[in-house]
Amino acid sequence: MKTILHKATERGFANHGWLQANHSFSFASYNNPEKVHFGALRVLNDDIIAPKMGFGTHPHDNMEIITIPLKGVLKHKDNMGDEWIPVLPNEVQIMSAGKGVQHSEINGSVNDHLSLFQIWIFPDKQNVEPRYDQKKFNGNERKNKLQTLVTSIDEIHEGSLKIHQDAIISRIDLDKNHDFEYKLKTENHGVYIMNIHGKVSIDAHVLETRDALGVSSTDVFSIKASEDSALLFIEVPMEF
């Protein structure tokens, strides 16, 4: 089993005043040649956005973009006809940029900060028709068991959002002292684990809040929670 540990304190950080951004991988002005991507996973940004602030209209192409609000309300607008759609905690948003899309994202609250993860995954198809989708997930259904959020558009998996890549994004909330066994899809897959909060052990590594671990070259591994913990799994092809 291969592992790569990314401590929370070692992430790239940018303070834009209205935006506090932590970058797991090279992004914008943060450039770390040792942290460019993990397989098909290109970006994992951990953002806090001030009330009423956000990202003005900007373009994307040929990227699968997944947004997971943790606290607050995100509002999304794009040139596909979506007009300031709210996205709340326990909801997940996906956008296949494909041959090109323009969108805007803002904090929809006038009082409260917005906290979210934004994930970019390289697609397995180029120049597809852009598409947008979102879905609400029941937080109780990830209590000590895996809740699948996103899978490949080429697979039949009821209840998950779809992207153009053989990836699986999932979450689990583990009780203290609970063990969990994670099984990877294929030998070519690796999984990037973000500890949203709490404290867990994987292999010889201890992950505290916002620490992350990339795991590859194995079919299964065990996780033990020493505190109540919440984990995000981003499983992607390592070669693509």
TrEMBL record:
Its cofactor is Fe cation. Residues 10-121 form the Pirin N-terminal domain. It comes from the Bacteria. Pfam families: Pirin, Pirin_C_2. Residues 157-236 form the Quercetin 2,3-dioxygenase C-terminal cupin domain. The keyword Iron applies. The keyword Metal-binding applies. One of its GO terms (molecular function) is metal ion binding. Keywords: Iron, Metal-binding. Fe cation binds at residues 58, 60, 103, 105. Binds 1 Fe cation per subunit. Belongs to the pirin family. This is Pirin N-terminal domain-containing protein. It comes from Mariniflexile fucanivorans.
